Amino acid sequence: MKLIQRTTVKKNERALLLRNGSFDRVLQSGTYWLFAGMDQLRVETFALEQPAFTHGLADYLMAQEPAVVAAEFVQVNLSEQQVGLRTENGVLVEVLPPGTRRLYWKGLVEVSVQVIDLEAGPELPAALVARLTHTQLRQRSVTGLTGVLQVQVPEGQCALLTIDGKVDRLLSAGAYAFWRYGRTIAVELVDLRLQTVEVSGQDIMTRDKVSLRLNLSATFRYTDVLRAFAQLQKPADHLYRELQFALRAAVGTRTLDELLENKTVIDDVVTAHMAAKLQPFGMQLESVGVKDIVLPGEMKTILTQVVQAEKQAQANVIRRREETAATRSLLNTAKVMEDNPVALRMKELETLERVAERIDKISVFGGLDQVLNGLVKMR
Q: Which of 151, 132, 296 is nearest to 211 (CA)?
């Protein structure tokens, strides 16, 4: 056993001298001749580039060696209502949770800890939020951020802040952060812009027992987000169900002919129904419209036949009307020519002109009076 031991501590190191396993003193940088005598000496060195002192003697030093701790370490002793922001050389590197007890070597790295009282409120100051946001862009990230809820609310949206299951307030567009320690915090983004909801594939039977499939599209917006989420767990789901009920009320109380004759009746009924249902919940329907109505296959065939029959009947009516008009016109012409020989003669010449337009050459014998009596020779 050596009575005297030589040990060297580098300039970027600190060392603990342990005599028989117990703390003796802290060794600064330098060369030491240690007298052991009958004792067992052990020297443990620590690199100052890693300032955190994670040793089994940390609690002993804080409890029994306050002078050593004050001289050699930066001490952190947080209560259950405090958090710490640890910086190294002025750069934020760690968020310390409540109840943290640690030691950090003084010397090479300048370590400081900012203590924040949680009883002041869950929201972080705007300057600290900006600081945390900026640190995310660095190569070295901040540790301990699991205790911080960071929220980014985009433009055109808001966020519903809930603390311990109770709605607290609305957050407008911007960046926010909240302490999670000792409380349950949740944030739900809500879009304040015009939103679209599709109600598709609704099979509804009309009053005359015809099954239809309808697809409806609607747009809505929130007028009072706090009221909507205070009374409804999921406002969008409530809107969807009410649109279904309104659609069934509009279709189920009318016949197929009524719906086909007035295609906007569904939109009007749904709009009136939704205005009364949504207003108490801080929501407003902006527009609604039936995109399409799908008929069963056999009903399509029947309607096609009905339309064809209707169009055929209309064509027959028009044809008879035209025939009647033509007959009446001929009768009137005959009466005029009966009483007026000159008009009869002009009609004869007109007929001859039309005939001449279709024939290359005409030979007439017996004068023009014989033309209408069949004495025309055509070549």
A: 296
